[in-house]
Amino acid sequence: MDYAGIVDNCMTVGDLQQGDMAVVKSFLGGLDSQSRFMEMGILPGVELRLVKFAPLGGTIELKVRDYYVSIRQQDALNIVIEN
Amino acid sequence: MNAAKVSWVALIGNPNSGKTAIFNLLTGMNQKVSNYPGITVEKKVGKGQFNDGTIYHLLDFPGTYSLTPESIDERIVTEQVLHWIHGKNPPAVIVSVVDATNLSRNLYLTTQLLDLGIPIVVALNMMDLIDQTKNIDPLSLDNWLGAAAVVPMSALKNNGLNKLKDQVQASIHTKPVNNDIFPLEVKKPLEKILLPITSLLYTKLGYAPRFAAAQALRLITRKSTLGLYNSAIQEEQKIDSITVSKIEDLRSVAIKKIEKAGLKPSSLEAMLRYQWLDENLAQKQYDLKNQIRKIHASEKIDQILTHRWLGPGIFIGLLYFIFQSIFSFASIPMDWIEAGVGWLSRGALTLVPESNFRGLLIDGIIAGIGSIIIFLPQIVILMFFLTLLEDSGYMARVAFMLDRGMRKIGLHGRSVLPLMSGYACAIPGVMSTRTIDNWKERLITMLILPLMSCSARLPVYALMIGAFIPPITVGYIFGLQGLMMVVMYFIGTVTALILAKIFSLWIKSEGKSSFVMEMPPYRLPILRSVFRQVFIRTKLFLFNAGKIILAISIILWFLASFPKTDKKGNHTTIHNSFAGKIGHTIEPAIQPLGFDWKVGIALITSFAAREVLVSTMATIYNVENTGDDMVQLSDAMKNDINLSTGLPVFTPLVAVSLMVFYVYAAQCMATFAIIRRETNTWKWPLFMIIYMNVLAYLLSFLVYQGGLWLGFS
């Protein structure tokens, strides 16, 4: 299913500020890293916290489950969160 | 099972789960590192001993998060697993290494391994870091997982190892429990959709029902799993192209049905497994919700180490500290080695009677080898620091901080580690690029990697700087010599980054780049394993480089010592020797760079390996020196006078020009052989050899001629 267009106004991980917590709702279509995210336990229903932005930007650090992981901001825009 | 046959055990786990530490503890020094055929992924095999003295073999696999073949490391593991399933030498037991502090994500892989029908012993590592209140009950774990055993342990504290060995041994002859039921709850409609694939795998390939179901699920989720079957066609009799295309057809049909049912095929496996894991872990009072609120000690450390301003500053400071210490700490053991080599050659002088052999021994072998082992302390220090940064978890932070910059020039945050390894040696650096999934980013990383000044350049820089750059202090704290060294590393690195950008503009991209990188907790590196790593790398360097250096030193000694007399029977000097003639022939070409014929010989021999420059110069000066004493190489170079001009052969400007040449020149043939293997074509290595040597000549020319023009000498 292609979500493009339907979810124009939805919140994504890209909207989070440092320290914010959110629950993953879905992934936007066409995200290559999606399967990799899911294998690492980042999937719908899972709660995450934005730990920090990289000093020079571009990447963010999240806490998911028991561990810390860094992803790119452009990928974060494709992780939809529950409002 | 044949009792006389030694059983073998596979070690599989997530990256950062402490797998390597467990491997080292179990095998001690009884390990052999080799490569998988065709690719340069390290294959580590070791011999272990059970508590009753029985010997077993242990095979360490690259760290992986799942049994899907996305990166090369993962491909190794999944290919092996498929071979085992098809009956090719399966292990007696699989030890699934699990980080107890990160249970759910680590157990994901364990659940995949449990499907294989091979006894699984879970090594529940890092139990020392679990707070007592959480109290994971290993017994209840093995019950619902269906593992042969769950052994709580700590590789760091060396706890639980004997228990692990006992459980592994006890599991060798057991049949895995729970093997015919697929433990995940595959709901009815999905089960029905998967059934055609499952039954094909069951009937055609003889898979056990549980593995057939798991594999069907994986085939739907990841296309790369299908690719695995395609490449297995050539290697295995069990699989033929008809079966594979049948699987492919069934797969497309199933995917359509799943999409129609409103599910996402690409997320099926992960959803099902994590659902199952999370439910079961929740029943064990394992609260996921609270975990993300907890601030781990590493996060507090990162408030400084990846701080907006402090983070990048600390990284640069660390680099500077490492390179300064290469000079200052290393000088003491270097003095000892120098004294030892001098003692050895004086000993040879008194013990061995005057002969050609003595000449070869002292001026060829001892001078050649001696000039190289003197740089060993510096190489060891560099490797020590790099291993420390890697094992502590700091390198992941570096990738996190630098990904944006790296991406701008066509690289990946994960390119940082290979590039930094390149400071030690390009070869392991090239190998570690395999963690970069995207081919374009990986290729560019390899293309520029040899420009990172490796430890083989260190002897060249050290010799030139030690002899020609005055040991003065500038700006109160910076030693000029250390600064010069940093400059050499710096120009190589900066050129590499500029070229990366240029290459990224004309190399075609395949597939999207992704970046999902675990930030492992900071861990105090296990010193024993750091030293082992340094020892193994140093040994490799010494033996690989040593062989080449010894051979070249001997050949060179002959070329430089003969013919002993000319046609008229006069005693000749090195100028008229074979080596001298070669050097004089190429001298016109390198004169614009400030190099004389002696350097010319060294440039040729350096094609085998860069550090050979030093031993070449040592051999040449020792042969030239008519006395029997070994000459101090740097003194000999300082005192060398050009007979026609009356000026010194080597000046600070020549030294800088020579160093710049060595920053850029493509000289280490071993590196290009590895890159040829990794890229599977000569196209890229040849391209590198050309671009690097052109750069070397041009920039060295600019430095020397520009320097002369500015009035330097």
UniProtKB/TrEMBL annotation, chain B:
GO terms for molecular function: ferrous iron transmembrane transporter activity; GTP binding. CDD domains: FeoB (cd01879). It is found in: Cell membrane. Residues 6-174 form the FeoB-type G domain. Keywords: Cell membrane, GTP-binding, Ion transport, Iron, Iron transport, Membrane, Nucleotide-binding, Transmembrane, Transmembrane helix, Transport. This is FeoB-type G domain-containing protein. GO terms for cellular component: plasma membrane. The chain crosses the membrane at residues 309-330, 365-389, 443-469, 475-500, 540-560, 649-674, 686-704. Pfam families: FeoB_C, FeoB_N, Gate. It is a multi-pass membrane protein. It comes from marine metagenome. InterPro entries: Fe2_transport_prot-B, Fe2_transport_prot_B_C, FeoB_GTPase, G_FEOB_dom, Gate_dom, GTP-bd, P-loop_NTPase.
